[in-house]
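--- STAGE predict ---
source: upstream dedup step, 1 unique chain passed
mode: sequence only
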Amino acid sequence: MDFVTTAERAATVAAPPRTRHIAGAGTPADVWQSWLARMGVTRHTSPPWLTPAQRLVVVAPHPDDEVLACGGLLHGHLARGGEALVVAVTDGEASHPGDPEWPAPRLAEQRRAESAAGLLRLSAGRALPVLRLGVPDGRVMRYAPRLQATLEALLQPGDVALTTWRWDGHPDHEACGAATVAAAARQGCTVAEAPVWMWHWADTRDPLIPWARLCAVPVAPDSAACKRHALALHATQRTPRAGGLPPILEEAILQRAEWGAEYFFVEP
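--- STAGE serialize ---
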């Protein structure tokens, strides 16, 4: 049985989007890098919360989030012989609203293909299982209970569940974060939450951000190259959209993807 039925998908496609707190140019990357260097964030070349003996379960709200959030970590884990599973929650079909070239069904198919190509690049030559749920893009919150139940059935004690931060600013990211945290708690799993959009809307003084839980995982040169190539394969997200809209993956996002480390909120 499909996670989302055809009738459910059709019923949600025209619903108005939730308010999102992402706008403007955002906080410059050099501001973050300078501040993070001064802050002395804990750095784990080999994170103690993820060993090669553990399975890494990546819960990605949209195609490309698995690359942005943890492409370097995923590549390195697989290269060291670790096991992984990617749960692709949506197909990202809402990224080009009103674009006649990219109606939702065609865009969903294309973004699934881009995701598959990118993951092949990150998989270090290994078979990487992917579970695609097909939740409507922009509507993950409506399916949060079902998503949590699905994740509870998938996760096993000892797994590390990695997803987007539960306060990331994008409603789908937040819904995936909250569902993953709840499911992992039920199954006794470690959770790592990756800030993706936080770097855009927040600043260094934001009281919402749990800086004490932030850790950095340096990205090795070979993993960085694979991450860069994987992100380049998401062509629909790197080109301007209809109506004068900029690409989803603007220059600031691409700059953050080139940082020498990936950042995660992890419970101590």
